[in-house]
Design a protein that fits this description.
Elements: H1 2-13, E1 23-29, H2 33-46, E2 50-56, H3 59-72, E3 79-82, H4 85-93, E4 106-119, E5 143-145, H5 152-165, H6 167-175, E6 179-180, H7 184-193, E7 198-202, H8 203-211, E8 216-219, E9 226-233, H9 241-252, H10 254-261, E10 266-267, H11 281-285, H12 293-301, H13 303-315
Parallel strand pairs: 1-2, 1-3, 5-6, 5-7
Antiparallel strand pairs: 3-9, 4-7, 4-8, 4-9, 4-10
Helix pairs in contact: 4-12, 5-6, 6-13
């Protein structure tokens, strides 16, 4: 009996540290699962006491989930990575975000780029070269874009283009019967199938599609791709703020930034090169620049009006 007791005592006292419960860190992100998974794994290797849990979805879906948690006062999200800086500005104004020391409450962590694509069977001379070309009657019923009512990045693109080209531009797109629904994946599918010949889509989606053999070509607009800063947010009510800060720091580290470029996104860290197959960032954006913090706040305050105006001109 004493021998059995001694064996059990040695077994339980000698249990390895990983047998203890880990902290579940919930990351809500619009980054696709195949790209966020290696980032989560690399972070866990550096932080073996933390288990990363991921809720992945489009920007609108994530916003709805977080807002519901805020209303219920049962926040599960520890850190949110979303391609919608305008929502981050709104949450800051509502005093809901936690600020890491020396950082903005909604801090940029990578840059997505909105470009155009064409089906390979469209001759080069018959493709658009700049954003205004899409209003040409020859592209009537031939262009697909996502919906700013469903996609945060598409909303950002509409905000950029309406500011630079005016709402007359979207009035002309509406008269050209531009199709608008879903997110970036829907755009890729429509152009791949040949149902639409031209698309407005994120570069990261287009590069990933090309890698799997999609029959599309990327068009970098001569007046510039539209840079959209993704942001990372920690709510004040987040259950694990300290662990969320660690994840936020990891994302901005050279290792984290390189892993993001593996998902074809441009890094914020200037020491990390552009994604494989992409133009250098300065060459890709040409005349466009990321919105200033002041402009982000202005757009966030008029988000509903922008969506309504777009709906009136393009969707109705």
């Amino acid at each position: 009996m004493r021998i059995l007791f001694h064996i059990l005592w040695v077994f339980f006292c000698g249990m390895p540290a990983h047998a203890h419960a880990k902290t579940d860190l919930w990351i809500y992100t619009s980054v696709y699962k195949e790209f966020i998974a290696p980032i989560a794994h690399a972070f866990e290797l550096k932080n073996p006491d933390i288990q990363v849990q991921v809720f992945q979805g489009g920007s609108e879906k994530i916003q709805a989930k977080v807002e519901a948690e805020v209303i219920a006062q049962r926040t599960q999200a520890d850190l949110v990575m979303i391609s919608d800086p305008f929502w981050g500005a709104q949450l800051t104004k509502r005093n809901l975000l936690y600020s890491r020391k020396g950082h903005s409450p909604y801090e940029a962590n990578y840059i997505s780029l909105m470009v155009m694509i064409a089906h390979k069977d469209v001759p080069t001379a018959q493709r658009p070269s700049k954003w205004s070309d899409l209003t040409d009657p020859k592209f009537k019923r031939r262009v697909q874009m996502g919906s700013p009512l469903e996609s945060g990045t598409m909303f950002a693109a509409v905000a950029y283009l309406s500011d630079k080209l005016g709402w007359d531009y979207f009035d002309q797109l509406g008269k050209n019967i531009i199709a608008s629904h879903g997110g970036n994946s829907a755009v890729i599918q429509k152009v791949e199938s040949g149902e639409k010949k031209i698309g407005i889509v994120l570069l990261e989606n287009a590069l990933a599609a090309q890698k799997r053999g999609s029959p599309i070509d990327i068009i970098y607009p001569s007046d510039g791709g539209i840079p959209i800063e993704s942001v990372q947010l920690i709510l004040k009510a987040s259950p694990h703020v300290t662990e969320a800060e660690k994840f936020a720091s990891f994302i901005l580290s050279p290792v984290g930034q390189k892993l993001l470029t593996d998902g074809y996104m441009y890094p914020i860290n200037p020491t990390v090169p552009a994604p494989e197959g992409a133009l250098s960032y300065p060459k890709a954006i040409q005349g466009f620049k990321p919105m200033s913090p002041e402009k982000v706040i202005e757009v966030s305050e008029h988000a509903k009006e922008i969506k309504t105006k777009f709906s009136e001109l393009v969707l109705e």
